[in-house]
Amino acid sequence: MSQTDQPEILLAQPRGFCAGVDRAINIVNEALSRFGKPIYVRHEIVHNKYVVDELRTKGAVFVEELAEVPRGGIVVFSAHGVSQEVRRDAEARGLQVYDATCPLVTKVHLEVVKMCKEGFTVLMIGHAGHPEVEGTMGQVGEGIILIEDLEDVAKLNLPADEKVAFVTQTTLSVDETKEIVDALTKKFPDISKPRKQDICYATQNRQDAVKFMAPQVDLVIVVGSKASSNSNRLRELSEKLGVPSYMVDAPEQLEEKWFEGKKRIGLTAGASAPESLAQSIVARIQEFGPRQIRSLPGIVEDVTFSLPKNLTN
Ligand code: 0CH
Ligand code: SF4
What is the pTM of this model? Predict the structure, then answer.
């Protein structure tokens, strides 16, 4: 039997935690060890149930509204970032803030502020209701418009002499975003683009790894929770490449029938999914039938972000 005929589980490289997620979780852990519980966290620190449950057992309290945090309490802002209004609200409530916004999301925030100051109308490509979109659009009071899809581009009705720029959510589909940017560029040939694309290195690398893996497998399992934008994009990408795909965030969610007649299984994990969870899912797949595990070649990421200054002093 040749290597590729063997029943196998292929592991995408890279997969799982990115530098921003690693930093965000470290911030909550560091705050817990310095100040003790409770440490309030506004929104899920990252969109992963396993991560959130684990931090909760250590004393993190997850809230959606700052009104749920007692006056003077300690609060961590999630990796997805917050609007200026949320920052003002935290200050007004006398909260002690530790900011886990990913530096690559902050980079987009700064772009928005700069472009608006320079008189541009900013088009934000992203998904309505996602906390990163709310945070990024909320860097400015006005002058920013959400673009979700090609239809929104077609509907845009701006004066011909309008100065237009765009930014994007960091965790979008690289290919779909390119289509939207192409349509925008057609409509506004002078549109100002970010110096470096806003879709982050981790999103790009995990999608590239799925593109490499998908043609080699019969099924792709994505480790990720429902709310995770970047994990959903990995599942969609596999399907677009013609390979059936399921997203799970616990081994019990795997269904034996998914694996019937499937020889090679590909496994990847979103940027918020821990490797320990991925490994427990691999172990469960092996229970459905003996399969060798093979790590695919791919980019080895060496990005790290330091903790905020007010947690390192
Ligand atoms: O992919 P999204 O943005 O939904 O978030 P996540 O699953 O928590 O992954 C971390 C990304 C955080 C902000 O870029
Ligand atoms: Fe930062 Fe990208 Fe990770 Fe989001 S997915 S936390 S932008 S590195």
Answer: 0.97
Backbone angles phi, psi at 81, to 5 degrees: 90, 165
Band (pLDDT 50/70/90 cuts) for residue 1 is very low
What is the CA(199)–ligand 2 centre distance, in A? Answer: 9
**How close is the Cα of 160 to the center of ligand 2, in Å?**
35
pLDDT at residue 160, as a whole number? 80
Ligand number nearest CA of 47 is 1
Looking at residue 182, its pLDDT comes to: 98
Q: Considering the domain 3-17+201-295, what is its CATH architecture?
A: 3-Layer(aba) Sandwich (3.40)
b/e string for 61-71 if b means 16 or more Cβ within 10 A? ebeeebeebee
Residue 170 Cβ inside 6 Å of ligand 1? The answer reads yes
Distance CA 80, CA 196 (A): 19
Class of domain 19-102: alpha beta
Catalytic residues: 132
Strand pairing class (74-77; 39-42) = parallel
